[in-house]
Specification:
With 458 residues, the chain is of the alpha/beta class. 45% of the residues lie in helices and 17% in strands. The chain folds into 3 domains: 213 residues, TPP-binding domain (Rossmann fold, 3-Layer(aba) Sandwich), CATH 3.40.50; 52 residues, no CATH class; 170 residues, Beta-Lactamase (2-Layer Sandwich). It has 18 helices and 15 strands. The strands form 3 sheets. Strands 3-4-2-1-7-8-9 form a 7-stranded parallel β-sheet, sandwiched between helices.
């Protein structure tokens, strides 16, 4: 959190989201989107050919050629590349919800913008309590009206609205000294810091304008860009090897780089910002340590209570699924980057040292680690040796959020269940069990709060 100190306080904050915000919602990354466009337009016939072309040529020029080849079908191709055919539904990601939540809590001191074509940030704003949200694709926002600024236009409902995609689109923007997007960025940095989150920062217009603004206007506030290991597709060791170089790279062009491991980490930071300036502020790590310590003090008692509860929870999930659930387990974050297998159905652990520890994060080999790293429900098929009983076909992981009533809730644990059905079968019936999963997460959150943050125990 110390790295994000420039974003906290009473100044105005502008958040600009990139494709990394929408990818967890099931929408394509920019590279995947470009590949689909190249194929749909008929420029190439296979995804493999598109990937080769995009890797060996300037992607902007490739997309311009796809635009020309598409003709009057351009809007249809953009929609299909983004949403599929038939169009798939998508829900806001934790990053969308965090940005919208910050806006809802501090509407007069927050501006939201996106480089994405989708309307997930609008959906998140409505979910966070905004009565109405205006989508701005042309710099025509009305003062006092909640607005999401689409700096590169929008694509939805079979149409496209000023979508900036190919070479000509970007060339025209860069050449226009009066482009509304350039004025937007200049005004943002005059009011407060600018946070670019979930973007690879490859957009030539944004790079050009920020260069000019930093060079010529010398704004009081800084532009900050998040560099997320998950977005780069790197393992932890490789990322740590080049982390200093990444930071220096962005500093050399006048931007402050903030390095993180998971996209959900960006969401966590945004949720924390409006609290970080308080004298009584406790970081998520400090609250996690408090939760862990409270549990270790009552280890024996909680073992019995949690095991009994897990047995009941397994029955609840089984009823929702209409098939057995096995080995219900509660995992608790140990405040040192690991998850501990704290309690398991049918098993009593003798002490804290007996608990299995697993890594957390989007690329954790354990689904519990993935779930807490992404802050989302996870399902994964598993293979078990023949003859092993019970026979699991998949594992369900449900993140658990806790809070002290003052700070934002944070992911502090995970529930896992071995299931008799495959992931594909469960996803086809998700509406039948997702409410049960949400209820269990909420119930365990309340349970954890009672242990960690009740007055009598602290």
């Amino acid at each position: 959190m110390e790295s994000f100190a420039a974003l906290a306080g009473d100044t105005h904050l502008t958040v600009v989201l990139g494709a990394g915000a929408s990818a967890p919602s099931g929408l394509p990354t920019w590279d995947d989107f470009a590949t689909r466009i190249a194929v749909l337009s008929g420029l190439v016939t296979t995804s493999t050919a598109a990937e080769v072309l995009l890797s060996k040529q300037d992607p902007m020029i490739v997309l311009e050629a796809a635009h020309a080849r598409s003709g009057s079908s351009w809007a249809a191709h953009l929609n299909e590349a983004l949403y599929g055919r038939p169009p798939s539904s998508a829900d806001p990601s934790p990053l969308h919800l965090a940005a919208a939540g910050h806006f809802a809590a501090m509407p007069g001191a927050t501006t939201l913008a996106t480089l994405n074509f989708d309307d997930l940030l609008e959906s998140a704003a409505l979910t966070s309590g905004a009565p109405v949200v205006v989508m701005d694709t042309g710099g025509q926002a009305e003062p006092g009206v909640p607005t999401i600024h689409h700096l590169h236009g929008a694509v939805f409902g079979g149409n496209e609205y000023s979508a900036v995609v190919g070479y000509n689109d970007f060339a025209e923007l860069v050449a226009d000294p009066h482009a509304w997007q350039r004025q937007f960025l200049s005004s943002a940095l005059a009011r407060g810091p600018l946070l670019l989150a979930g973007t690879s920062y490859r957009d030539p217009d944004i790079r050009h304008w920020l260069h000019l603004i930093v060079r010529d206007e010398k704004p009081r506030y800084r532009a900050l860009v998040t560099i997320v290991r998950e977005g780069l597709g790197l393992d932890r060791e490789t990322f740590e090897t080049i982390e200093d170089a990444l930071t220096s790279e962005w500093e050399s062009i006048g931007l402050q780089a903030l390095t993180l491991h998971d996209l959900a980490d960006v969401a966590l930071v945004i949720r924390e910002l409006r609290h970080a300036g308080s004298d009584s502020y406790l970081t998520p790590a400090e609250r996690s340590r408090r939760t862990w310590d409270a549990h270790t003090r009552r280890f024996g008692t909680l073992q019995r209570e949690y095991v009994e509860q897990l047995e009941a929870d397994a029955e609840m999930i089984a009823a929702a699924l209409g098939s057995p659930a096995y080995r219900a387990t509660f995992w608790l974050a140990n405040a040192r980057g690991k998850l501990a297998r704290w309690a398991s159905e049918g098993t009593y652990y003798a002490g804290v040292r007996q608990l299995k520890l697993v890594p957390t994060g989007h690329d954790s080999p354990w689904i519990a680690g993935e779930a807490i790293g992404s802050e989302e429900v996870k399902l994964k098929d598993v293979e078990r040796a023949a003859g092993v009983s019970p026979t699991w076909r998949s594992v369900l992981a449900i993140p658990v959020f806790a809070g002290d009533g003052t700070h934002p809730d944070f992911a502090t644990g995970v529930l896992t269940f071995g299931l008799a059905q495959t992931t594909s079968a469960l996803l086809a019936r998700q509406d039948e069990w997702i409410n049960a999963a949400s209820e269990l997460s909420a119930a365990w959150g309340t349970r954890i709060n009672g242990v960690a943050f009740s007055t009598k125990d602290n």
